[in-house]
Amino acid sequence: MIGQTLSVYLAKNFLRNTMFVFLVFFFLIALVDMLELSRRTARIDDVGFFDVVSIVMLRAPVLSENIVPFAVLFGASASLLLLNKRLELVVARASGVSVWQFLAPICAAAAVVGLVMGLIYNPLSLRLQASSLSLEGVVFAKNTGVTSDTTWNFWTRIARPDGDMVLRAAVAAERGKKLSGVSLYLFDKDGKPEQRIDAASANFAEAVPGTDSLPNRYVLERANILTVGEKPKVVPVMVVPVSITAELLEIRQTSAERVSFWDLDDQAELAERAGRPPEPFQTRWHSVLALPLLFVAMVLLAGTVSLTFARFGINGKRILTGVVAGFVLYVLTKLVVTFGSNGLVSPVIAAWSPATVGSLIAITVLLHQEDG
User: Fold this and answer.
1) Domain boundaries, the chain
2) What pLDDT digit, counting tens, does each position of 350-360 carry?
3) What is the pLDDT of residue 151?
4) For the chain, percent helix, then strand, then coil, each to nearest 5?
5) Residue 198 DSSP class
């Protein structure tokens, strides 16, 4: 077992290099986002530089989350390369320290980074993103009337008291409560087509207990009604009752990536009540818990291409191999998580299997390199 001084030294080196790489990527992302936002706001009156900077800095943390695994990979590679270049690892190995002993503190530090990212950084970045969306909505609403939560080509399926309804809107705002360019497809309890309604706009209204005799409903304006077996007709206002609350409607449109880790479990239960599959929230919950293992896998992959340089010389192809391996692991992680979110595989398998397999492969390579 190596001493505490060496363990702290290795962990500090790794954390310092990882932070440096992360900050470089962070400011690059913020710069690109600022240029794009400046282009979008160039023709909007009364939008100052401070507004643009505020929006960018509020949403940069959540945009930067996806580059943290690469920051860990590059930070670990840089740390091991520098230690090799200064022959510090050679001295450590000569004194009887094995590769596993000086990788252990770096892996432990990577696991801590994963916990901090999932349990602290992500919830805070989501709060900042919510503030940026509010500010962006105010900025863009000055001239366009379009808010930051506007969705184009909006689709959802909603239960009615006497059947189901498929709703499509060209533009939706406020999580599906305000719609424009609306088409409704109404089905009876047996699933047979009953009506199609096209409307210029629709607004969701929720019943107020004790003061409102109407149920929850969508209020349609300038509705063109096509009923099976009847002639088309146009009405200025039409009310379509729906069996869904405003809260459940909002839950249906909530992305799992926009929910804090601490709320994912409750959100999965609410989604199930709203008729939405809970798998996206369950997969996201397990993915956050698996971040420490994913970061450990990145460190081990860095070790496979960084620990032999002192003996065999620096080889650019080996560095590229490590970068490609980390990128492939990241892509596979995202791909399998997508399968889990769509219910194709178990959320537990989707979240944990890529990092587990990546770690085992890296350990196998290290065993072959170090122990033959």
Assistant:
1) 4-142+280-371, 151-248
2) 999 999 999 99
3) 62
4) 60, 15, 20
5) E
